[in-house]
Amino acid sequence: MDSEALKKYSSLHPKPAGLTLQYGTAGFRTKAEQLDHVMFRMGLLAVLRSRAVASTIGIMVTASHNPEEDNGVKLVDPLGEMLHASWEEYATQLANAEDHELQQTITAICQKAAVNQHKDASVFIGRDTRPSSKKLSQSVIDGIFVLGGQYHDYGLVTTPQLHYMVCCQNTQGQYGKATLEGYYEKLSKAFTELIKQSSSSGESQKHLKIDCANGIGALKLSEMEPYLPKEVLIQLYNDGTKEKLNHLCGADFVKVHQKPPRGLDMKPNERCCSFDGDADRIIYYYQDATGLFHLIDGDKIATLISIFLKELLAKGGQTLKMAVVQTAYANGSSTRYLEETLKVPVHCVKTGVKHLHHKAQEFDIGVYFEANGHGTVLFSKAAETKIRQLAKEEKDNEKREAAKVLENMIDLINQTVGDAVSDMLVIEAILALKGLTVQQWDAIYTDLPNRLLKIQVADRRVIDTTDAERQAVTPPGLQEKIDALVKKYKLSRAFVRPSGTEDVVRIYAEADTQENADALAHEVSLAVY
Ligand code: 16G
Ligand code: ZN
Asked: Which of 75, 178, 238, 257 could form a disulfide with 168 if both were Cys (CB 3.0 to 4.6 A apart)?
């Protein structure tokens, strides 16, 4: 390591005095003006990580659904997964080291993680459309450069596109080509194959309105459109040319407020969806003839996909083990439908994509979705091999056809991380193949009324949870109080957890009526104070 160069470059990206930040659930995230030194240092860290695992590492500059003024950064591990937990700690140390401690912090990380400083390093960079992102990604590049790493800057990409590129690169093209073209071609080819087999539905069924949250999704969908077959007619709204990113629109806004985004003119019974700011989440919705808004969230997406996959497995006579992974936020009706009606095992894990992803890897087919619309499907290597083989060699026509559909699903799904573009195509293909309208999809089960609240407390860390965040272990007595409150209502459930992204405590409650869910959430919030 050239310590003079490090000194020189780090002085261009000084750490504001007294600022400490933490690598949280989704990397670092805060006001953009506080992040320059973090970007530089994550460039450094990406080089170290790349050397440690002898693979290409990804680094994405985005703050997802946060306001436009914010920004953030996260690292992507070799197969497109989130950065390994053991390195989150190093990321935090490096971000918080004082300028004069930088070199010794790097040395310490290299020792602890057995990093050979002489190895090659390769980093892929991507960024979202925030005004601050370009300059911040330049700071990332400074960090990579000073430690002698190679990099490829993909510029403006969705978060899942960057995850995809990293995976392609490290699997020597087995997962696909590490280019945007490669991504569009792979997905659109699989989609076209799938859609071919749908009986042509009415004109109105072909239309989908997409709220792009004034973010990167609009740009990338326009790039992809020429690759897509005519069977899906997408109309883009909130494309970022007029309004601010995520402002009164996007998947997070729609899910939290349970109302349509601004800037999308919705007619009764039209199928609509919203992406979030970096296009790794998707939420569907529609308005019925009476003007009532219907939200179709991640739980309903997981259910639709599970129904479809289960039918295909049955048709193909396959015994692959499928499971659904959810978090405590999953609506109770979805869990009940999956377990009792569909007879698919459901597992509940802690909030945060990495936890769901990790659990889903345990099955032949692991479907995971957070209620907020982040999710995907993972196929084990063995399952994938078997499906591809059957699609080629199976003698029985019906079984072979089922395997072919599954094979195309594998290619259409971005298995590295939840991907709004890929998920949207998966959903559109399933709706077309099953001949389902958005109303029919919505009616598969009825959500239990629920309420999400957030409250500010002196120190949110006094709340510690267990059982996938469904039980509070501290402060003493809190869980007993919650249990007593829950007992007062029918079909009720409630839990509290400290947020991993904001300085708040979140409260979730569901019950038989909206009034009761609201009352329960309120009462639980009083118990937390
Ligand atoms: C992050 C997570 C998301 C989770 C959310 C919860 C990733 C990539 N993103 O955005 O999965 O739902 O945090 O936020 O893991 P909270 O801890 O503030 O409730
Ligand atoms: Zn996002």
From this structure: 178
pLDDT computed for residue 198 by the predictor: 83
| Domain boundary residue, one of 398, 420, 442 | 442
Please, which residues have CB within 8 angstroms of residue 320's CB and are 6 or more apart in sequence? 313, 364, 365, 383, 386
Give me the residues paired with residue 61 across strands: 73, 127
Considering the domain architecture, whether residues 7 and 146 belong to the same structural domain is answered as yes
* pLDDT, tens digit (0-9, with 9 covering 90-100), for 88-126: 999 999 999 999 999 999 999 999 999 999 999 999 999
Q: What is the mean pLDDT of residues 352-376?
A: 97
Same domain? 9 vs 145: yes
Span 166-175, pLDDT tens digits? 999 999 999 9
For ligand 1, pick from 88, 327, 353, 358 the residue to mutate: most ligand atoms within 8 Å of CB.
353
Mutate to test the pocket of ligand 1, among 374, 376, 453, 505 (most ligand atoms within 8 A of CB): 374
Give a yes or no: residue 100 inside a domain.
Answer: yes
* Same domain, yes or no: 237 and 266: yes
Which ligand is nearest to the Cα of residue 255, counting in written order? 1
- Kindly list the protein residues whose Cβ atom lies closer than 6 A to any atom of ligand 1: 25-26, 351-353, 370, 372, 374, 499-502, 506
* Number of domains observed in the structure of the chain: 4
What is residue 232's predicted lDDT score, i.e. its pLDDT?
79
Nearest atom of ligand 1 to the alpha carbon of 74: 8
Asked if omega into 498 is within 30° of 0 (cis), the reply is no
Relative to the CA of 418, which ligand 1 atom is closest?
Answer: 8
Q: What residues are annotated to the active site? A: 64
Give the ligand at the shortest distance from the Cα of 353: 1
Contacts of 241 (CB under 8 A, 6+ apart): none
